[in-house]
Design brief:
Helices cover about 15% and strands about 50% of the residues. InterPro entries: Beta-barrel_OMP_2.
Length: about 260
Amino acid sequence: MQTINIWHKFDLYWRKITLTFFLLGGIILSGFSQDNYRPINKSGQDDQFLSYGFFLAAHTSSLRLKYSDAFMDPENPDFANIQSIQPVFSPGFSLGFLLKMRLHDQLTFTGTPKVGFYEFRTDVNYFQTDDFEQNSLGVRTESLITEMTMVEMPLLIKYKSMRFDNTRMFFVAGANPMFRTKSQDEADADQLVLKSKDVALELGMGFDFYFKFFKFSLEIRFSHGLSNIYKAETSDQNFAGAIDELRRKSITLYLNFQ
């Protein structure tokens, strides 16, 4: 048995998505900066106590895995055939609405109810056997796919910088309670079973761009699940006892319109 450090994979995804975010932001900012006499646009409803909008989002998500003590024990023969269990990042998307309450010119309370479509892939790597096809390393990989449709209600505090012409930078932080639309009885049929409810910590940043008729916001947000959502008793017993905890994590790129 051996453990595989997947944090370097998370770091690669983080770098790629962050680079994409700043490239898009730079392209939009360069368009704004080409005209030094651009009029100040009044779009975005920033002066109203309540304002509304919608968004589209693309995310990549995975699971944070903690092995059980039984799996880590080299003297335990129960999981001697398992080399490692490795969550893999998978793409998805979500869409929803923006509900904003103005607390101050630079401070906003924001609710973003949404529906998210997730796919969690987990690779279970078994040591070589004669009955199955294996790769050049003598390991056979079984990929487990868990699909989830989640109803989410992120509640966020948004802190905005002073407005500079038609642009503004902001930071967001808050909590995201969520629940799955599929019943637990249906989910128990999966090989890797996850619980239906979770709460995640959300942190992000972005830019507001004020156009003539609407405000567009480009935002990147990181989400870390706080609950252990693993249900060992109904997962595949070939590997169920090797896992102690599973927690969600995701990186999301939001396109907001107001």
